[in-house]
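User: quick one, sequence for these tokens?
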């Protein structure tokens, strides 16, 4: 950038032109009036809900992203089983990473060696 333009201020149009709309390249997809990392952005967009993230991860593990069970009770059982499995995997990963013993969760059980 030329030295004379360093620290310069510019104005950028945020609305799309008719040509951009016709080509389905809306300006607002690539340019945000409130940039990420600012306090206003955090207030507007926040973080993703834990339940939404959990459900998306569960769906990613299913064939065609669809449950193989029908009915509220069966799907609730599948969800609980997924949550238990995820928690056990997290505990085992923590135990492997830190070498910490977790007898309050597993008794004297230890995961198989990774050889």
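Assistant:
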């Amino acid at each position: 950038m030329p030295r004379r333009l360093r620290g310069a201020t510019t104005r950028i149009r945020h609305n799309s032109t008719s040509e951009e709309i016709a080509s389905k390249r809306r300006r607002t997809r690539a340019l945000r009036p409130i940039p990420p990392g600012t306090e206003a952005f955090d207030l507007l967009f926040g973080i993703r809900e834990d339940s939404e993230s959990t459900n998306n991860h569960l769906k990613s593990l299913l064939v065609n992203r669809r449950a193989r069970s029908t009915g509220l009770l069966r799907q609730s059982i599948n969800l609980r089983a997924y949550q238990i499995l995820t928690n056990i995997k997290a505990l085992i990963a923590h135990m492997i990473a830190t070498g910490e013993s977790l007898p309050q969760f597993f008794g004297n059980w230890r995961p198989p060696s990774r050889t």
